[in-house]
């Protein structure tokens, strides 16, 4: 019903979603209904979690765990309308977050508490030699001048749960990704492609 309503009110946008480059889509049986999406936005990967009540960005580590095949998993038939609805939610969320981030930067708004917490984590990892001083300075400068967004700050804060090797790997990835996001924010013509999609739904 929600999808039909959107299609009727936004035929052009609906057509764009339907014509997205088709990635690998899989529907798996689970206790909770949700979806995990990997989008390619102008060559930059974005990882999104979708369920009935929320949409949120997640890290590469989180989505990599989801896409690991399980021996006893049950594969269900893909439902095109359900997939399109989840993709619409994921893409809308990305566009909304990027627009807000762009506005926040233009107006000089920074989440001080989140920024301070992130720098504290980075200082701790610097002492543990999980990043070098040059990389630490890059992060600190990007956080202080607001060029690193809330999505990336949250990704960094989640790393304290991971192993040392994962922390080192992700810190290199996030700063590179942030540079790409700067290009995306300045590019009005977004090319959005679906790379991977997994829908979890209750079996009959």
Compact description:
The protein is an alpha+beta fold.
Segments where pLDDT lies below 50 for 5+ residues?
none
Please, how many helices?
8
Distance between the termini: 20 Å
Count of β-strands: 6
Arrangement of strands in the largest sheet: 4-3-2-6-1-5
Structural Rg: 18 Å
* Helicity level: 40-55%
Described by its quaternary structure, the protein is single chain
**SSE order, as H and E?**
HHEEEEHEHHHHHE
- Structural class determined from secondary elements: alpha+beta
Mean pLDDT over the full residue set = 77
Percent strand equals 15-25%
SSE diagram, text form:
Layout: H1 2-9, H2 11-18, E1 24-29, E2 34-41, E3 44-51, E4 55-57, H3 60-66, E5 75-76, H4 80-107, H5 112-127, H6 133-144, H7 150-158, H8 164-185, E6 192-201
Parallel strand pairs: 1-6
Antiparallel strand pairs: 1-5, 2-3, 2-6, 3-4
Helix pairs in contact: 1-2, 5-6, 5-7
Descriptive overview:
The protein is of the alpha+beta class. It is built from 8 helices and 6 strands. The chain has helices at residues 2-9, 11-18, 60-66, 80-107, 112-127, 133-144, 150-158, 164-185, and strands at 24-29, 34-41, 44-51, 55-57, 75-76, 192-201. The chain has a 6-stranded mixed sheet, sandwiched between helices. The longest helix is centred in the middle third of the chain and has 28 residues, at 80-107.
List its salient traits.
6 strands; six-stranded mixed β-sheet; 8 helices; globular; single chain; alpha+beta; 204 residues
């Amino acid at each position: 019903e929600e999808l039909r309503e959107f299609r009727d009110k936004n035929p052009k946008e609906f057509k764009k979603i339907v014509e997205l480059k088709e990635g690998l889509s899989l529907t798996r049986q689970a206790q909770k209904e949700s979806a995990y999406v990997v989008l390619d936005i102008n060559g930059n990967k974005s990882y999104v979690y979708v369920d009935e009540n929320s949409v949120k960005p997640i890290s590469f580590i989180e989505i990599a765990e989801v896409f690991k095949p399980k021996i006893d998993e049950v594969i269900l038939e893909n439902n095109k309308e359900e997939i399109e609805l989840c993709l619409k939610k994921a893409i809308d969320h990305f566009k909304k977050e990027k627009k807000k981030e762009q506005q926040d930067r233009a107006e000089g708004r920074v989440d001080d508490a989140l920024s301070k917490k992130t720098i504290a984590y980075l200082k701790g990892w610097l002492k543990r030699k999980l990043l070098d001083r040059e990389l630490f300075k890059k992060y600190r400068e990007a956080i202080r001048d607001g060029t690193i967004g809330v999505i990336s700050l949250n990704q960094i804060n989640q790393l304290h749960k991971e192993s040392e090797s994962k922390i080192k790997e992700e810190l290199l990835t996030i700063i590179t990704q942030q540079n790409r996001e700067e290009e995306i924010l300045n590019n009005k013509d977004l090319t959005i492609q679906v790379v991977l999609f997994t829908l979890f739904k209750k079996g009959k």
